[in-house]
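hey so u asked for the seq, here:
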Amino acid sequence: TTTTTTTTTTTTFASYCEQDADTEDVVEDCGTGMYSPDNFSPCLECDYGYYKVLTDNSTCIACPAGTNTSTMGTDNRTECQCEEGSYSLIDFDESGSNGASCATCDPGSFCTGGTTIMECPEDSWSSSGAANMTDCSCNAGFYSTGPLDGSVLCEECPAGSYCLGGQHIAACPSGATSYEGSGLLSNCSCLPGKYEASGSCESCPRGTYKDWLGLEACTACADGTYSNALGATSADTCSSCPANMGTAPPASAQTDCYCLWGYQGPPGGPCTACPAGSYKATNDSVFACTPCTAGTYSSEVGATSSSVCTSCASGAYSTAGSTAKTSCSCNAGYTDNSVSNVKGLCWATSNTGITCTQCAAGTYKAAAGCGFCLSCPVGTYSASAGAVSLDACTACPANAVTAQTGSTLITQCLCKAGYTGSDGGTCTACPKGTYKEG
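ran it, structure tokens below
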């Protein structure tokens, strides 16, 4: 039993001695900003994002969320700074009681860390969380020749180009240009004399012009003008048609000019006014002036409507294209009893109008124009007014005759000498031994 006790005591003492020897290697103080991972290993600097204020062997403390340190071995919480792309309004204090916190860098700015927040260079912008100036990009309408770094800055997009932003710059399509600072392809507009068609700029067609910068269609030369110029840039290229002519814009040649209402002539002119007795109610160089219809007249030159053609008086007539009321003649079967006619002068020589009346019964007039109605000859009669032919005068029965011309009734047919019978009836010879004078 004594031996066993001695052995146990020896073993315990040996272990104690070994433990005491190890204790001599324990790291007692690493100092601020340093620590020993297991209290035996050599002291190490606190890693990035950690700090240690105490001089003991306690572990390093992590910086607040979103912060980091610029070096290893940091010994104070105040050295914890917001990471790139964020910022704080105030520095972090030692105790953490001042409420400092990190916020994402605002759009249009860049944050290099800590409390630093800087605006992007002029005419540039950034998304939120930008960390460096190179994260800023030129706005549309501006461009840079490389990343923005202070020596390279944004430049205004030159005329004739468009800049989508950043380092982009491109020339406008052929035939187009733009103003300075254009930021879209759609800012490229067609030059004067050109217009947009299917995404490209085309020359204004003949008969049109465009004197401004834009994508709009070209303007047609005004009515009565024409232009043979392709890609015209001014209304001055539009030439006037000859007098009294118009066009259906756009017109590209003088032959596109046509005569206006009331005028006639070939395409391109010259055009002359419709003469009296005619009119033209269309704009063209195809149809000539239209004569006033028969039975009407007009003294107006350059007439534009048939409404100028005035009808002759009742019972009168005129040939197509007549120019005055004196052109109206009494129809066959009608006569004019005006003073000029009575005197044997054709009424057509008078400036006054005529009054045509029907030929009375027992008379006729076979032709239109001047002249009186003629009486039916002796031995005939006519009961019809307005007769137009000698055929209207009917012969009396056999052996009967009228006493005068212009008889109107058959009862005016009387039996001749030597014949007897009722007026207008059958006449028979006087019997032998009798006679009858006329």
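Confidence is low (pLDDT under 50) at residues 1-24. The longest strand covers residues 109-113.
lmk if thats what u needed
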